Amino acid sequence: MAMVLLVVLGLALLATENGSRADSRILTSIVDVGSKTRLTCTLNDSDTEISGHRWVKGDRVLHEDSQTSRTMEYEVDMDERVGQYSCIFLPESAGRTYVDVRGPPKIRAAKKSEHATEGETAVLICKSTSFPPVTDWLWYKMTDTGPKVLANNSQNFVVSSDTKTELHIQNLDLQDDPGTYVCNGTNAEDTAQAVITLRVRHRLAALWPFLGIVAEVLVLVTVILIYEKRRKPDEVLDDEDTGSAPLKSSSHHVNDKDKNVRQRNAN
Question: What digits encode the pLDDT tens for the residues 209-227?
């Protein structure tokens, strides 16, 4: 008896979960109209008076109105249409279901170009907003002989989820690690990829600007010292010549004045 009760409870919970996820009374359609995709939900049967509509994607409300129609529509750009949408007839007890817009994965690099220093660890990141989610990620590096698949080893390791993948490259080598890396994501619909360029700096690269400034200062000081050393003797000679003449002239005039004073006093 206890086993039968558990089975009944399990079936009831399952029915409740499915009912909360999608309402079988609501018919859905997806139609491409030019550069747009039109999503439509139609409520066939409800005893609740409709007071409005709400469209939701993920946790974001896309549109809400107060119309009373049993049909609600929403248009999205074809480039951004992929995802799972909720169409909700208000009040929410009136009916709710999901519209799944499937498509190939959309893969993008967090940074198209990454810079790191020799000996450090570089982290290359790719993200996906696809529906259905990405199930398989693959990293490889472009070489002269073709793409080289990167597997987890002592130097490289990959951390992935259905929305993001990270390639960690440890102890960067100045010769081997710079180059073009590709992240490839696959879902049930198709495969897509993104490209990242990794550049590795020399470990002393951060000191080069400082060393350049020091070199410029040393050159400037050397030029000033050489210039001062060459022109100093000439300036000393000029000072001695110009300083001696007024002294002789001044002494001569003073003696003449004293002589004239003595002559007047004698008279």
Answer: 666 787 788 888 888 888 7
For 188, the enclosing helix (H) or strand (E) is none
Task: Round to whole Å and give the CA distance between 105 and 123.
Answer: 22
Q: Which amino acid is at 129?
A: T
- Positions in the chain short of pLDDT 70: 1-21, 205-211, 232-267
Total Cβ atoms within 10 A of residue 80: 12
- How far is the C-alpha of 32 from the C-alpha of 74, rounded, in Å? 12
State how far the Cα of 43 lies from the Cα of 52, in Å rounded to an integer: 12
- Coil, helix or strand for 186? strand
Strand runs labelled E in the chain? 26-33, 36-43, 52-57, 60-65, 71-77, 83-90, 95-101, 107-109, 113-117, 122-128, 136-143, 146-149, 156-160, 164-169, 179-186, 191-201
> What values do phi and psi take at 164, rounded to 5?
-155, 150
The 10 Å Cβ neighbour count of residue 117 is 16
How many Å apart are CA 39 and CA 49, to the nearest integer? 22
Number of Cβ within a 10 Å radius of residue 170:
15
DSSP state of 168: E
> What's the Cα-to-Cα distance from 138 to each of 19, 22, 182, 203, rounded to whole Å?
37, 34, 8, 30
What are the two backbone dihedrals, phi and then psi, of residue 218, each rounded to the nearest 5 degrees? -60, -45
Q: pTM to 2 decimals?
A: 0.65
Q: Specify the residue for token string 């859905």.
A: 28
